[in-house]
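Long-time lurker, first post. I've been practising inverse folding by hand and with some scripts of my own, and I keep getting stuck on stretches where the structure tokens seem ambiguous. Below is the full token string for one chain I'm working on. Before anyone asks, I'm not after the true native sequence, just a reasonable design that respects the backbone. If someone could post their per-position residues I'd love to compare against what I wrote down in my notebook.
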């Protein structure tokens, strides 16, 4: 049973306990989880029925807290001053010691941060104290919810609670601006117009017009790709290969990362990006020929894990 609640404090308590809570913002309802808890973040994907891992936006009570988790630039500070709280998401490089789970950021070196303009969301975020990862609170492929009733219609029984925050004023997702590269790139138009942004910081390139644009939300996600080649559904492992294990590890490799000893998909999802980074780095140091991945079942979160592994194994340019 999903509870409809009215207390931001109670919602923060559920988040601290690793549960999923939907909450209203000025744009749309978000499906929140503790961004530093990989298994809670994995639960977001289960609840949404999302077949792949998109990076998630981290929500904060204020800019000062947000900027502890990323490396702010002068442009970011200027825009935050002007538009936060508000429907603007900034993509910046992660701070060196950033504790946000790799799954929340889909293994990327950047993190999307925003401060929503809604009193209940801000109460919740202040009470919680850290980053809350939240995609829109809809089932995958369905429309974004702008009332608590919309959320319940799609996610009843799949999440712990919905914080009833009334109807969303903007009703359209936040604008996403990438400030992690040499010049600003618009990744998604939204609640703050490009003209408003350009009035503050000058010309902004559109993602589709920039060849160096690393990432476009949703579609052209070029996630972190390991440098070592990846071999899927391995039934055996060569001694010069690193092993991504799921369940009892195949014998023969000296370099093993265990995703989940007891084949728990949620645990495996939470550890996936960390595993790929680690195997890639350590494997290269030891001169490994590649990474062999043991089979992962194609149901539930296994679909998203396999989607990511397929991309990691796809031929490179
Ligand atoms: O208004 C909003 O932004 C709402 C409310 C809940 O805050 N959230 C929202 O989240 O729309 P979602 O997950 O539906 O869309 C977030 C978009 C995704 O398309 C994702 O690819 C992009 O943000 N994104 C997140 N982190 C990113 C990153 N590090 N680099 C590039 N794009 C990123
Ligand atoms: Mg969405």
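-- Answer (accepted) --
I ran through it position by position. Result:
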């Amino acid at each position: 049973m999903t509870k409809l609640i009215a207390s931001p404090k109670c919602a923060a308590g559920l988040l601290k306990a690793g549960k999923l809570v939907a909450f209203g913002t000025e744009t749309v309802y978000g499906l929140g989880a503790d961004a530093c808890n990989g298994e809670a973040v994995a639960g977001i994907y289960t609840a949404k029925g999302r077949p792949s891992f998109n990076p998630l936006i981290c929500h904060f009570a204020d800019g000062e807290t947000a900027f502890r988790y990323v490396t702010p630039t002068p442009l970011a500070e200027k825009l935050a001053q002007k538009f936060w709280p508000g429907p603007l998401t900034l993509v910046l490089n992660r701070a060196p010691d950033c504790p946000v789970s790799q799954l929340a950021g889909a293994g990327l070196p950047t993190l999307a941060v925003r401060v929503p303009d809604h009193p209940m969301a801000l109460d919740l975020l202040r009470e919680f104290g850290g980053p809350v990862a939240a995609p829109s609170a809809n089932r995958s492929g369905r429309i974004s919810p702008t009332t608590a009733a919309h959320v319940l219609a799609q996610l009843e029984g799949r999440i712990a609670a919905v914080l009833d925050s009334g109807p969303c004023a903007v009703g359209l997702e936040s604008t996403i601006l990438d400030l992690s590269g040499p010049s600003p790139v618009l990744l998604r138009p939204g609640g703050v117009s490009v003209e408003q942004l350009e009035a503050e910081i000058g010309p902004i390139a559109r993602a589709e017009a920039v060849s160096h644009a690393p990432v476009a939300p949703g579609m052209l996600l070029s996630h972190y790709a390991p440098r070592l080649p990846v071999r899927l559904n391995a039934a055996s492992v060569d001694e010069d290969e690193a092993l991504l294990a799921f369940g009892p590890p195949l014998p023969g490799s000296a370099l093993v990362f265990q995703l989940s000893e007891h084949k728990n998909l949620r645990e495996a999802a939470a550890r996936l990006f960390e595993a790929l980074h680690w195997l890639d780095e350590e494997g290269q140091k030891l001169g490994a020929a590649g990474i062999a991945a043991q089979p992962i079942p194609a149901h539930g979160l296994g679909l998203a894990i396999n989607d990511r592994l397929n991309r990691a194994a796809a031929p490179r340019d």
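A couple of notes from the structure itself: The longest helix spans residues 265-285. Confidence is low (pLDDT under 50) at residues 212-222. Happy to go over any region you disagree with.
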